[in-house]
Each structure stands twice: as C-alpha cells, then as structure tokens.
Specification:
Blueprint lengths: L1 H8 L2 H12 L5 H5 L6 H13 L3 E6 L2 E6 L2 H11 L21 E9 L3 H9 L1 H5 L6 E4 L6 E5 L8 E9 L3 E8 L3 H4 L3 E11 L2 E11 L11 H14 L13
Antiparallel strand pairs: 1-2, 3-9, 4-5, 5-6, 6-7, 7-8, 8-9
Helix pairs in contact: 1-4, 5-9
C-alpha cells in the first residue's frame, strides 16, 4: 500500500487534486475538472489512481458522485516512515483542516487484515477501544436505541456520549454523538458517525463516515480519525500500540 501511495503522490496533478479536496471536500468530477487545463478523461484517470491508492473515496449523492479526501493512508505512511525519525512535536504538524459545504461530512477508509467479527469486537469492546482511541473506553449494551458513553480514568470527566441508531454486527454501526472533551466541541452539538465493515479476501474494508457536522465545524471533532484508524489497524495486525505523540492522550 505504501508503494501505491508514494506513486500516486509523485504526480503534481494528483497532488493538486488532493489539495483541492483538502480545501473543499466532497467535490464532483466537473468541479474538480474545472480547476485544470486538462481533459475530463485525464482528471478521471488521476482520480482513479488516487482511489486505488486509497487517498480518495467516492460517495453517491443523488445523481452526483462526490469525491472525498481520505487522509488515513497518509497517516499510515507518517506512522511508518516519519514519526520514528522526527522529533515528537512533528506529529502535531499532520493535523488536517477542511472547509466543506453544508451539510458537512468526512469519509475515511482503511483496509485491515482481520475478520469482520474481530473488527467489530475491536470497535465495541471498551478495553480494546482504549488501545487505539486516545486511551478512551466506550461502554454500551450495543442494542438499537441504547446509549453509549466514552471516558477514561485520566480524562477528568466524560469524553463523549450518544445513541446507537443502528446496530448490525458485524457489518454496520450508526451512532449519534456529542463530544464532551472540551467546551469548544461540546458547543458543536450532535453529529453522526457510521462504521461500515465489508469483507475483502482475507481483510476488511472499514469505512467511517462522520457527518451532520455544521459548516466550518471545529476540526477537533473529525481531525483525530486518521490517527484512530491507523492505531486500530496497527493493533489488529501486529498487537502493538502506536507511539505517535497524542495517540494515547488519556491513558
């Protein structure tokens, strides 16, 4: 996967496409093509290669096909090739910003060599969750309509809460969420997180969609997903924890 990411990033047009999605996520092919003095077919080819590298994820919205930046592969490259060589503060430089049109949503995708059952367990088990979710645990009875809470002994208070809107193990989990780890995120109100698990050979494709965010929402709400999913993949595939600064903030 690293080779595909490096190859995709080697082309300046593809990097410019990612920059365009970084500035404004969820764009159509027409919107992206209008930014370049190249053919529509050329832009389609570049987008296809970015999709194959996992750097772009597409979603249908009515008749339109929207393209979203997926920063998770870049996070994985950072964790594999950058963080162990860089000074600890360098990891903070990888924070992602995005200005989106309402309704605001972020889409993240990652492939993990595991079974759907094991992945579901890692998402819903409090102890396992704490190993990659900044040290935070999540507790619930995991039935439709039930509540969940996020917290950690060192947090000084609850970190989040919400409702399990859909529970379909081991395939799909939809949750409303109110973030509570700071006054700034608390004021953002309720958002929605959807976990989708799809078996692919000996692996699973995990797609996390964080939506119902207000336009210009505080990036603390969604900026941590690349690190969370990188830590989830690392733990399931190797049994090891990320040592990137901040990855176990509340441990």
């Amino acid at each position: 996967m690293d080779d595909a990411v490096f190859k995709a990033l080697a082309d300046p047009t593809r990097r410019t496409l990612l920059d365009a999605l970084f500035r404004e996520d969820g764009q159509t092919l027409n919107a992206l093509q209008s930014r370049f003095d190249v053919t529509r077919f050329a832009v389609m080819k570049h987008l296809k290669q970015l999709e194959q590298a996992g750097l772009v994820v597409t979603r249908r919205q009515g008749r339109e096909k929207l393209h979203f930046l997926n920063p998770v592969p870049i996070r994985l490259v950072h964790d594999r090739w950058v963080s162990k060589y860089a000074e600890p503060w360098a990891a903070a430089l990888s924070g992602l910003k995005s200005r989106l049109e309402s309704p605001m949503q972020k889409v993240f995708e990652i492939y993990i060599r595991t079974t759907p059952e094991r992945l579901w367990e890692a998402i819903t088990d409090p102890e396992i969750r704490s190993k990659y979710n900044f040290g935070a645990r999540i507790t619930s009875d995991w039935t439709p309509g039930s509540r969940f809470e996020m917290g950690a002994p060192g947090a000084g208070g609850p970190l989040g809460e919400g409702e399990n809107l859909e529970v379909d193990p081991p395939r799909r989990l939809v949750q409303s969420m109110v973030a509570l780890w700071s006054d700034e995120v608390r004021s953002e109100g309720t958002t929605r997180v959807t976990w989708e698990i799809e078996p692919v050979g000996d692996s699973c494709r995990l797609t996390v969609t964080h939506d119902q965010l207000r336009e210009g929402a505080n990036e603390e709400l969604y900026g941590g997903w690349p690190m969370i999913l990188s830590g989830l993949k690392t733990w399931l595939e190797t049994g090891e924890l990320l040592t990137t600064p901040g990855s176990l903030l509340y441990s």
